[in-house]
Amino acid sequence: MAATLSVNLNAVAMLRNRRDLPWPSVTGLGRIALQAGAQGLTVHPRPDQRHIRFSDLPEIRALIDDEFPHAEFNIEGYPTDDFIALVEKTQPEQVTLVPDDPAQATSDHGWNFHASRELLAPVVKRLKRGGMRVSLFCDPDASAEDLAVARELGADRVEIYTGPYGGCHDDSSKAAKHLKDIEKVGVAARSLGLGVNAGHDLTVDNLPALVRALPDLAEVSIGHGLTADALVHGMAGTVERFLKALGGAQVK
Question: Which of 72, 76, 159, 219 is catalytic?
């Protein structure tokens, strides 16, 4: 079964926020993505609301509940008290916890699970008690020991940070090396009973090799590359292209 595609709407929101105007519509483009076959929507509401705004969350929740009840809402973020309250109010199907400093431009590393155990353990427990699946952002070279801690913390999944792999778009030999590391992490995670997600700098060009390396991949969350593609192919056409790539096909 092919991995599911969750469309990250942050880049759409960032473009909207350049003006005090309601377009491009975050929910409108989310609707187009889901109509085209995407299985979920992802957002990362940062404290400064520089892209997704807190007010977007109930609108996206309502869009999924009212029109696409089989789709999933995934909210990413650093587990501050405010973030936890936000997701408990919104009730996404999945919460992806990332170790980002609020000032970071984007997620660029996974958790140090050993060092963050005391922070993460009560948060994971609380979110799971609230009925939400929990995924923890994971480095692409994480060890089996690291992943074992993630499992002990109660995580349902890990999301492998694929930035180094995606960054090798012009160097196939380096990309192959990073892909081997990702494959090792995926195998180790699955052996521990963890589901495997992936995200960051994924494109229609590098997705087929990724899904071959991770045949049990559960979900990819894609924003920047997908939004860039949508400027050329439109949101519906782009979602179709990414779904084809997730099925293992090369896309021209």
Answer: 76
